Protein: Chorismate dehydratase
Organism: Brevibacillus borstelensis AK1
Amino acid sequence: MQKSLRIGQILYTNTFPVTFHFDQARFEDRISFIRQVPAQLNEAMARGEIDLGPISSFSYAEHAKDYLVLPDLSVSAKGPVGSIFLFSKKPIEELNEAPIALTNTSATSINLLKVILQKFYGLQVSYSMQAPVLEEMMLGADAALLIGDDAIRAIRQRVPYMIYDLGELWYRFTGYSMTFALWTVRKAILAEHAELLSEVHNAFLESKQKHLSNPEPLIEYVHQHYGGEKADWRQYFQGLQHVFGDEQRTGLEYYYRCAAEQGLLPGPVTVELWEKSGRQKLR
């Protein structure tokens, strides 16, 4: 019998508004955190090594029969997301048949880029997966995709490339918000850990609300530990949405339909929410 819940934690600042004030001490040894980049958390969750936590929204779609989505938690944006960028040597419209380097830390964003380039721009390109080091990625590519803090650091360097925010492109073409990460839970652990799961979910919601009530402690923390200007961090967090309501769900399910059209998913996916009552919620 598993005594504790194993919770994933993304090693990017975009999740901090949900996790920064999380009161881990009150759970004592009933929970443990596993901190990795999204692609690693996706794999660990699929292998059953993590029970719940944020994963790429694309990974949820791949494993929807095994996972549920925890309500009112996500990393989303309606417009610019501020940390998911395509760096390009030429205008995006001129990238047909170009080699493009993709970060190996992502799932949602690399497939979002494929949807945008193929469906909305009508481009055919070639892709390669690489470690998220922009200078090396651009040696053999015309464009490169970076996400999270890797993308933020690259922007600060004022690199000599055209820069496209994928959240902004998605909104321009669809009018929808885009959800990049979801807090999910494996269905297999629900029966054994229903009460603890409810406590953990509430703790994440409380942490998020504490940040919304007073963002400055987090702004100060990231400024001290990640550099950059406080005003830039303030603007960045204000541009993110950490809710998951009907608006985010509609945009995400449209993304799944687009991905299915492009052969990136076997078919469209409907998001299934976990409910404390034990009755799951479909639209």
